[in-house]
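Collaborator request, handled under Task 6.
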Amino acid sequence: MEQAIKRETAFVGIETSKLLLKAVLLSGNEVLCKVLENDMAGYRWLRSWLQRNDVPVIGLRVCMRLDMPYSEAPTRMLADMGMVVCDAQPAQLNDYLRGQGLPDDAAHSAVVLANYCAHRRPARWTPPSPAYVELRLWLRRLHAIEGVRQQESARLNVHLQAGQHALHALLRQQIACLDAQIRQHESAILEHVKRHPGLPRPPELAGNYQRIARYSVGASLAGGH
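Structure tokens returned to the collaborator:
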């Protein structure tokens, strides 16, 4: 019974960055803070820290900004540990900030996320479908190849202006190979989304890949997730 009460009165907010997690625990009248590494060891330390503070991990509500970079790995791992990971979506979070008289930039604060979780009880995150995960991986790979092509294109004129004609010709061949890879990736992505209609819009599509966007995500492009 005591464990159930603690689970209902304890809330965690987590701010993510590339290297670190900033966690704030609200438990009763206490506000506790912890900074951990954003890796497997850090997730385990977080679990141990919660347990040392007599907070049940299973069913504990943890609030994060899942639209932020570097939130994907901790979201999955904490959910696998049995925590109820909640998504603080921007529109609802901004409404909460206005109600509390807080500035917009407070939306990334771990303590604000913990209080938002306690007051608003945001929806539980559910893992995306394998098809959606695969789409994101395809798009990331496409983005990486396009980045290499952009770098090589920048070097093309340098070789030409320096009179390095052999290097210029070789680089043109390499760029042509990259263009072929880009077309292959785009075709594979289009085939994938045709096999899985109605997928949500991945963040990797934002502002890019207009040809894919026209054919891929359908009505969900207008409103995102």
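The cover message to the collaborator said: "The first strand starts at residue 10 and ends at 16. The radius of gyration is 23 Å. Please let us know whether this matches your experimental observations."
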